Amino acid sequence: MQIDRSWENGKQKSPGKYRAPGISGCAPFIFWMPPSRLFPALLAAGIAMLALAALKHGAVEKPWSDIIAALFSGSDEDLRYYILQLRMPKVAAALAVGAALAVAGVILQNVLNNPLASSFTLGLSQGAAFGASFSMILLASVGSVWGLGIVTLGALAGALSAALLILGFTL
Question: Where are the alpha helices (DSSP H) in 1-63?
């Protein structure tokens, strides 16, 4: 058995078509991408499949044929409303919040110059929990301020105070 070393550091040394890295002489793949492009493509395909699954599964489960017919032909107006007005915004919000959390994590790691930094290891989540608990115990009768719940504002204040305290120690 010979080891194929034409791929090193994600680039093919010899010119020509892409070959599968690994053992030479193995059957070529029908579709091959360089490793630097394969992972993002698989990740995007996985996200798309999960988004489609989120459109199908829920309180009302319908077969794929009904969902596709409701989306493109508009045959069932109730199902079309249920998918476009209720489920699609939830899926879009979940994708946007996930992307925002990823960006926030990268920013946190870059600001603190620590690749292991996260909200849990730094105590930001505990600060938010403390702020929420503090506001529940002491300020429960207030209700809301500017349309936001007092518990939400307490959690925000706790997380911000923990972040400022940590940032003060690191500077």
Answer: 35-56
